[in-house]
């Protein structure tokens, strides 16, 4: 089998959110020419997914936004309802297929960018940069050389951590026989569902119209459920809690997101970098990734434009330290998860809390938020963390 070789200023491995966003921002800043290696149709291409984030003002990918909400709601296990308008922030929903089509079309219109359908097998440093060995969709061997290589593929195993929970979920896109949803309000957390023996569970509702919505059942715990168990929980939530009446399940999505205090390496060679969830972009305490990917992509493109390449920390040290304490407190059962989150959303203005969760809070705001959590169990957890060993987990997970 003959082998082809091609050169590019930057090679981006993976055509998901992180890979496509970085390629787009590299072309926007004129940093370098870029080649994206995207897996061909088959088992390596993930199923369509939903990404959500909050932002203010017009966004770079608004054309792919399926829906957005100005009002957000949290429902406590005791029936408390907290509804807020976190202006100027809006909660936005993207679907991976239209997002990919949008960014790919923009890359196709740029003379310094191209997308190659191929399976990447290995990435390694070579003199003057790095190489990616691939097999194309037609079965040809292809080696891509780049001054820099940015790898967004999922890690085969997560790094050692003191605490690792999983955010695992299944969602139904449902259509009801009669109007049952308020399209102006999204439910971030609805704790009116049976709670597991370990961890916590909640419902999540993103209405697309008065009769159409994404309804999810989510757990923070150590082990995923079977599909049948998720469906049973969803049926209970839609029938007995939301009381939606007759409905049709049009499609479903399912996933697992690691919630871990592991330290993700962002550089694995002189010219090889990890980006996206593989580079630690997922916020440990929430599972949100998309907004951090945008910040990371813009910063990398600016660094390449200025003559170098760095992958900045997706989240600040203080935020990661606070997340580590929360994960440990939840895992040990020192704090009651449903009550913790319900109280936090009730005591802290939602706009301030969302900015904190996005890493945009000031030290004083973070201190104030900390005081509105169960102080004694959180301090006890913070005191023990430095003495806990980091252990290699047994499995990895997927990015939501």
UniProtKB/TrEMBL annotation:
Enzyme Commission no: 5.5.1.19
Matching SUPFAM superfamilies, A to Z?
A: FAD/NAD(P)-binding domain
A Pfam family cross-referenced in the UniProt record is Lycopene_cycl
Q: Where are the coiled-coil regions?
A: none
Q: What class of enzyme is it?
A: isomerase
GO molecular function terms attached to this record: isomerase activity
UniProt entry keywords in alphabetical sequence:
Isomerase
- Which InterPro entries does the record associate with it? FAD/NAD-bd_sf
Keyword Calcium part of the UniProt annotation: no
According to UniProt, the name of this protein is: Lycopene beta-cyclase
